[in-house]
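Project standup — Tuesday

K.O.: blocked on the structure for the chain from last sprint. Re-posting the sequence here as requested.
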Amino acid sequence: MKWAHRLSNKSIRFKLLVGFLLFVIPLQLLLIFDNYYAMTVVREQVANSNRNLAALYMDQIDRSLEEVDKYLRTTVAFESDLIMLDLPKGINSDNYYLAKINLFNKLERDINTYKEMDYLFVYSSVNRELITNHPPGDTMDQLKEIREGMAAMLRERESWPKGAFELWFPYQLGDDYYISKIQKIGNVYIGAWAKASKLMSPLGLLDMGPEGKSLLVTDNMEPMNGVMPLDNRDDYLQVSTQSEQGQFALLILIPYSVILEHLPFLQRIWYVVILGALIILPIFYMFLRQNILNPINRIVTVMRRVRDGNLDQRVEPYPVSSEFELMNDVFNSMVAQIKALKIDVYEEKLLSQQAELKHLQLQINPHFFLNALNTIYNLAQFRNYQLIQDMSDYLIQYMRFMFQNNLKLVTVEDEIAHTRNYLNIQAMRFQDGFTYEIRSDDASLMQARIPPLMIQTFVENTIKHAITMDEPIHLRVDVEADDDQASFLRIVIRDTGQGFSEEALGKWQQEPDAEHHGDRHIGIWNARRRLRLIYQEKARLQLSNHPEGGANVEIRIPLQFEISSEEGYDVSIIDR
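H.V.: unblocked you, prediction finished:
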């Protein structure tokens, strides 16, 4: 809940954070895009450069191979000794061996013209003989192994048509790959043989980093020199160019790390800026939190508590900026003044309530006094001294209660005793035309505190409006704990008269707090007003007509046993 308040879209914390992110995130995205774009441009430029370089080297290799291919075609066309190898050597052995010597010498001589080649060879499929030059760097074992490999390669291709020898082709012998080209005339094959790594020697001069590679590869991407990187192939820039002379291609692999290390120094600054922004964001937020957000949050927290009615709250002193110190001092001063003003207003309200309660009670006193004196006067005419004494005693007790208990909450027991005095006087006045009973099932309720004259007011209202000379009236008062809430006292006053008029009930239901006009029902209005002043909204006064006839008054007030102030009512109840 606390974070919900802090991250509200109306809070300063939220706006500062969003504002900072709206500034930083586009900058970050711009730097990232710029960096990505620069890397893409550099990669494309390096790719184009190496693509052109690969094409240049492949063109150089193709020209060399093309020269060798022209030599092979020329030899096939003009070398007469090849005719002798096309015949079985037994037909003319002298000429056959002479032709072999001539061809060997030719191959030894011509190999020096084509430095890219390792071997030139002639093979007679009829006589199963292979003639090659002898490279000075190879041992006899190496020469034997290569010659056996050549012979095996040529025997594999004896059944191939002449058109299958148009291009140079790769051939694997042991762990090494060789590039070979064959020209066929009859049953004689003349060809060239070169190790693939020898063709790649010029590319070794290129600086492609410690992990960069230039490879001749077959059509199946099998490397013919070196080792192809098996892992993280995506970390390399791959540029390939297909040979026009053979069934192989030139592949250049350059690590992106080598490419990007040549980026301008500004790109590194971009990385620093991006990293710095990510580091600065929490630092900047902590700075804002310490110097702006926390002081504001402390003030807002205290303001919420003050709004809830706790005027004792103050903003605690913290090391903050001078502006916040001034705000804290002004706010604390304002809360103190509001508290003092509220106390003054509250005290004035209490004094006003006390005066109003006193006035309301004094309004009740004249209602009964004149009738009581008139009854005594009538009893004196009949010289009924005992009744006069009883009547005078009831009246004295009644008036003593009235004048000794102004503005004090009284016990239910005292209120009932006072009400009995009043009812006894009325019973003496109306004789058999009026009876009453007062009941309470719980003796402990007799010590509960209620406003004075609360029961007597409605009893008097019954006497005033319900008693007629036509039929007797019975009055009943019940004091009990509320069935719904045990912390409330319930007082029910019911008579057997004609009840309230519909007009009166409608008026009390529609305007319960309206100012009373005129003298009619002033006692009921005063009782309701007193309950509102003392108990606020906690008390309830309900007027109705009983289903069996007669008026029914129900009073529901908080159950209270102590008086908490000298003024005579519970201040805590009023304050709540």
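K.O.: great, moving the ticket to review. The first strand starts at residue 119 and ends at 124. Residues 199 and 221 are 17 Å apart (CA to CA).
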